[in-house]
Amino acid sequence: MNIKVRVWRQSGPSDKGRMVTYDVKDISPDASFLEMIDVLNETLILGGDDPIAFDHDCREGICGACSMVINGVAHGPEKATTTCQLHMRHFKDGDVIDVEPWRAAAFPVIKDLVVDRTAFDLIIQAGGYISASTGTAPDAHAAPVPKKDADAAFEAATCIGCGACVAACPNGSSMLFTAAKITHLGLMPQGQPERDSRVIDMLQAQDDAGFGGCTNMGECTEVCPKGIPLSLIGRLNSDYRKAIAKS
Amino acid sequence: MILKITMAVSGILLVLFLYVHMIGNLKIFLGAVDFDHYAHWLRALGTPLLPTMWYLWIQRAVLTLAVLAHIYTAAVLTIRAKKARPVKYAHRPKVQGSYAARTMRWGGVIVLLFIVFHILDLTTGNLNPVGDHEHPYANVVADFAPERWYVTLFYALAIISVGFHLWHGIFSAARTLGQQTMKGQRRAKAIALALSLVLVVGYLSVPFAVLVGLVD
Lengths: 247, 216
Prior knowledge:
The complex is a heterodimer.
Chain A: E1 3-9, E2 18-24, H1 33-46, E3 69-70, E4 73-74, E5 96-100, E6 109-111, E7 114-115, H2 118-127, H3 147-157, H4 164-168, H5 175-186, H6 195-208, H7 219-223, H8 231-246
Parallel strand pairs in A: 1-5
Antiparallel strand pairs in A: 1-2, 3-4, 3-5, 6-7
Helix pairs in contact in A: 2-6, 3-5, 5-6, 5-8, 6-8
Chain B: H1 2-26, H2 32-44, H3 54-84, H4 99-102, H5 104-123, H6 136-143, H7 149-176, H8 182-212
Transmembrane segments (chain B): 12-33, 53-79, 99-120, 149-170, 191-215
Keywords (chain B): Membrane, Transmembrane, Transmembrane helix
Protein name (chain B): Succinate dehydrogenase
């Protein structure tokens, strides 16, 4: 298939940046979106141009590195799919496809489509941990977890921290990410000691990093490659309300 | 988060007021005597514990505070949202969520403008063609007379804006205050829609009745 892509090109953090149009020819419909960019980059390199910088790692939908807003939708048009798992057969021959980086003050562009997601690390550092004793490993089943809680915690723990929720949020809020971490740790017995301080500290870190406030619009969950449900934000809110009532 | 809790609580207070206000409005269908009697009773509400009009002013003060708190928190959160995305997307389709959710801010502005007009019209009477404090029934009938179609249109537009605002607002308040199950989410959204629809129908029934001559 032959398509046109309009890609955000920005040579560095201080460059203003612009959309640049490229023709991409003879792309297999079975190529992934990233492979299509790889092919485009090969032609750019052969032509002596700077290849398009983009984040990628596992290319099997589990690492959370790839981060492209495709035609205005984070990770593109397919539901619950990362960019690397999106295939060109979901586009039509002759399409013009817009590709932009995650747009958020907290995720500054490093180059082209690569953004700095350190802000997520800061949120995790603020409270995304548990205290565990050192020494020999504890006995298995020493702390029983109800199956229902284990399943719900696992569902939240599937968050790969890609940042699509922030990219999609009209308020540039990272609430779904933070809520996934709060839920994942807060449902486990091991997560209880820090449960109150965790929610307060992580929300503070989120605000300090320059993310916007959540207005429960639900754009985040629509684009989440792991389908993290919006209801987890209610759990975060509930935890927060209880935590400040105690403090 | 404190901002959002303030927004949710002030919003709920305002919804409660809207319901009480709507029930009062519907008394217009019982006729001029009942409606005027109800309107005068509002001034006496709280007596003899409180002097006449005191309760009314206390309620007005609380509602004004709630409106101010709601606007203040909305403004702070809006500014924060603008700062959180300094560079806009070149390609941005309409958000996938509901129309109600994405019109909260401008819808809120329309509602605020309407509240100002509504107070000048039917509370103080400055903008009302009759403006008779003793006979509110006559004020309402004169207000929605067919030749003042633009007033009726603005009223309808504002009420529909309130409906959309609450469709998302009631659900959002529940979520902010900790609603957290998927089943509860479906229920909260259904309740928000039902409460909004009842309000819209209830409020629009008054100008509609005046227009078709049921109330004159």
